[in-house]
Write a structure and sequence with these properties.
- There is one protein chain.
- This protein has 448 residues and is of the alpha+beta class.
- Helices cover 22% and strands 22% of the residues.
- It contains nine helices and 21 strands.
- Strands 1, 2, 4, 5, 6 and 9 form a six-stranded antiparallel sheet that branches. The chain has a four-stranded mixed sheet with strand order 8-7-3-10, with no helix packed on it. It has a four-stranded antiparallel sheet with strand order 13-20-16-17.
- Strand 5 and strand 6 form a beta hairpin.
- Helix 1 crosses helix 4, helix 1 runs parallel beside helix 8 and helix 7 packs across helix 8.
- The radius of gyration is 23 Å and the shape is globular.
- The N and C termini lie far apart (66 Å).
């Protein structure tokens, strides 16, 4: 319990520390619930899901009916792997992609991205990376790079550039080259991933609802057990010192019944208050320019900005570092009005203000709920890999509207559903000017 007894706290102080504790632990608890659900699926049953220590792939873009993930991208195909290095290191192998853009961001259980093999960092040649647990001591085979993981379990959310359905076969071949091999099996014939179903996992309720629906006692007890296995970051000392005042100490179980009734009651209200704080912060989480939210600061690696880390875990679990990708989100047109598919819009890039990237960029259309909508040309996103028509001066006009803008402009048409719209831009390997705020997307203008 520390050297200060918990009963010296007022109820308000206990409540405030409880809110801090909820925010601090939110990514850790969310990651573990997500891991349990994602790995409790037999091989080959559900795209992107499957046992530990193996990659599970999305082999094609979602169709118009897909509703499993909000705001899916139509630029890359995903390859997901949950690694557990508790017993031994896991060697992650990537093929030679022939220059094709890919990235394998590795997240610790606190959702910090700690390593990103891929085109921007290690290049596109074949490579082998041994991911090792924090206190592992041993020798690796020659030619294998060591990656020290902050926690013994990590999540890899791989993405491989995909230039439309005609490109699937080539991308699927790259995906097949992403392989996880336990160190003890290196050089031997690959073994199939072992699947052991866990009947205690709630497979019916999405992870977000599971976490947000926990009582304070269950949430903090769960978090304390996870904290035994997944060490806090070295910069967390001050927060951990405060948590000891409400009976939460690293390495020990938490039992709310050991607290005074008043302190226990104060903690009971912490989850709802913390979730309200997160929801209130979401609209101002990023700077806004020209009607676009530019979330380019403290993403992927959060330091001690626990509120933002929790918000991102709730709204976009698995976010990249901005150096790998940024996602400008439109919230208003040039007149400050929310976009609606009942209007026609134009997005004009001057020749010198096209999205600055070292890889590629796109604009994706969603409905009010963040899903793609069926349209006559089956186009959900448009970008620099499409056969766009540029103006004589090198500028570019994109047409965001429900009806076709005419045969001469259809190459640049991004179809929109009726009603409220959700438009997201994606920049992969953005150049520095897209990160430091000297470049921002131009405003979307309503055509009258």
């Amino acid at each position: 319990m520390g050297d200060q007894p918990v009963d010296v706290l007022t109820e308000q102080e206990a409540h405030d520390i409880g809110v801090e504790a909820f925010l601090y632990f939110y990514p850790l608890v969310t990651m573990d619930v997500t891991r349990r659900v994602a790995t409790n699926v037999p091989p080959g049953v559900k795209p992107g899901f499957g046992p530990l220590n193996a990659f599970w792939h999305f082999r094609a873009f979602p169709d118009a009916a897909f509703r499993a993930v909000v705001r899916p991208n139509f630029d890359t195909l995903y390859s997901s792997a949950w690694l557990d290095m508790s017993d031994e290191p896991m060697i992650v192998s990537a093929p030679d992609t022939g220059g094709r853009y890919y990235l394998l961001p590795m997240l610790d259980m606190w959702t910090d991205v700690f390593a990103v093999p891929g085109k921007r960092t290690s290049g596109t040649g074949a490579g082998h990376f041994a991911v090792v647990a924090p206190r592992w001591q041993g020798t690796l085979p020659a030619g294998i790079a060591k990656i020290q993981a902050p926690t013994p379990v990590v999540w890899i959310i791989g993405r491989t550039q995909t230039d439309g359905p005609a490109d699937y076969a080539a991308v699927n071949a790259v995906q097949d080259g992403f392989v996880v091999t336990p160190l003890s099996q290196w050089g031997a014939a690959p073994q199939p991933a072992a699947f052991r179903p866990d009947s205690t996992v709630d497979m019916q309720t999405e992870p977000l609802r599971q976490v947000n629906g926990m009582s304070a006692a269950d949430y903090f007890s769960y978090a304390a057990e996870l904290l035994k296995r997944h060490s806090p970051h070295l910069s967390d000392w001050s927060t951990l010192a405060r948590l000891r005042r409400i009976g939460i100490e690293a390495g020990q179980s938490f039992d709310s019944n050991t607290l005074t009734p008043a302190i226990r009651a104060a903690l009971d209200g912490a989850p709802a208050a913390a979730l309200a704080k997160m929801n209130a912060k979401l609209p101002t989480l990023a700077r806004e320019t020209n009607g676009w939210e530019m979330n380019t600061d403290t993403m992927g690696v959060y330091g001690n900005y626990y509120l933002k880390r929790a918000c991102v875990a709730m709204a976009g679990l698995g976010a990249n570092q901005p150096e790998d990708a940024i996602y400008p989100l439109n919230v208003a047109d040039a007149d400050g009005q929310a976009l609606s598919g009942d209007n026609d819009y134009q997005l004009h890039f001057a020749a010198d203000e096209l999205p600055p990237v070292d890889a590629f960029w796109s604009v994706t259309m969603y409905d009010a709920e963040g899903f793609q909508a069926a349209n006559p040309i089956n186009r959900f996103a448009i970008g620099d890999r499409d056969a766009l028509t540029y103006n004589a001066d090198g500028s570019l006009d994109l047409y965001l509207q429900h009806a076709s803008p005419g045969a001469d402009k259809e190459a640049n048409w991004l179809p929109a559903p009726r009603g409220p719209l959700g438009v997201t831009m994606r920049l992969y390997a953005p150049k520095p000017q897209a990160l430091d705020g000297s470049w921002n997307p131009p405003a979307i203008t309503r055509v009258r």
